[in-house]
Amino acid sequence: MKKFIGRKEELQKLDSLYHTKGFQMAVVYGRRRIGKSTLLAEFIKDKKSIYYMATKVGAERNVELLSEEVLRVLAPNLQSVSFKSLESLLSFVGDSVSEEKLIFIIDELPYWAEKDESILSIFQKFADTEWAEKNILFILCGSALSFMEDKVLSEKSPLFGRRTAQIKLEAFSYLEAAEFVPNYSNEDKAICYGITGGVAKYLSLIDAEKSIHENIVAQFFEKTGYLYDETRNLLVQEFSDISLVNNIIEQIANGETTLNIIASKVHEKDSTVLYSLNKLISVGLVEKRNCITEEKNKKKTQYVLKDQMFRFWYSYVPAASSSIELGKGAIYYDKAVKPYIHMFMGKVFEEMCLYYTLNAGLDGKLKCFVTEAGTWWGTESLQDKDGKWYTQSADVDVVGISAIDRGVVVGECKFKNEKMDKGVYETLIRRSKAIPCKYPVVQYLLFSLSGYTDWIEENADKDNVALFTLDDLF
Fold first, then answer.
1. What is the pTM of this model?
2. In angstroms, rounded to a whole number, what is the distance separating the alpha carbons of residues 119 and 125?
3. Blockwise average pLDDT, block size 10, the chain, 474 residues
């Protein structure tokens, strides 16, 4: 049995509710595969609990199946008893509660409530009346983010104001993901994070006794690999027609980030693509990213894959499908994927450096108290050899802003098997001047997998430039 990893804050919050007298209600939600059910299973160990996972079988059948679980826990000698309604079942639960706290969990609530939202009003009635003084910790859990946010958590929900806690589970950070493979080198820990996106289910598939490359082959490049068909399986659960969303994701994975370009590539209207993009955002696979210094500029937005596993899959697996079906996936990986892993990791490394910058800034390790970190993109003006001015697109990987100290840190990240040279350093300093920000740059940050050339070590202004390696991030 695998050891439970991470989620310390979430467990502490649930444990605090458990030890609080009287009725408590928590809402736990997050995208599929993120580890909600695993978290709840860990939490209820050695505790009196009713755990029911709803299914798409209709309201009556869900009541029947929930009844079986309730009786199994609260009255095993009354297995033949049946309940006429959900209300009578919930009354029985309330009447059966003793001094010992009872945990009552409805997992995958949207499967039940999407077709019968009246159950939310029923839960509200019991929270306000029969259960109000009972020693119950009631937990509603679901993967449909839009349903949980709009129907359960919003002001329009019958349950609004009844919850005492809400927990939105996100993917693990690169530091948390590293706990799954403690004996890996830091480089391989980073790659493991990159190809799983920090998603709990995908991390749990990694065999820490095998190399990262053996794991990638086993999961992505063999017909029996869990991740070989995972993207399709996940999309089928969320979308009735996956052909369009499949094409959209493919474009984003290939680096297209704007609505109009994505729409032109998939030969659909902007409005049609926008609808699918919003649905992809609602299920946690895509995120809409704003330029950090121009967040109100609607023209400066990018659509990026929130799930790095999807980006890896769409970048390499479709082209390898024939080889994989012939049982030659390992050969294909060695020839056509492994040599380019560092290129794929470039974007992942940027995300890691953003995370590090925000944490280091909050911990007082940088020259200003960074409270916001993101990416900038735009244009810069340059002169050619003849003195003529021209503009070109430009971006800065890391921009950390401190409204408190009124300062900015900027950074560049390179996940390459070569030392960072003065060209990167000089480009960062030049491009930082193009960033429209009301605060001055107080520090330059360089992040390099393979260290730095002698020129940077000797010439970088140590008072204003911080040099980081991958080891520093870990």
1. 0.93
2. 10
3. 87 97 97 95 96 93 94 88 91 94 97 91 97 97 93 95 96 97 98 98 97 98 97 92 94 94 96 95 92 83 95 97 98 98 97 98 96 94 88 95 96 96 95 93 97 94 93 97
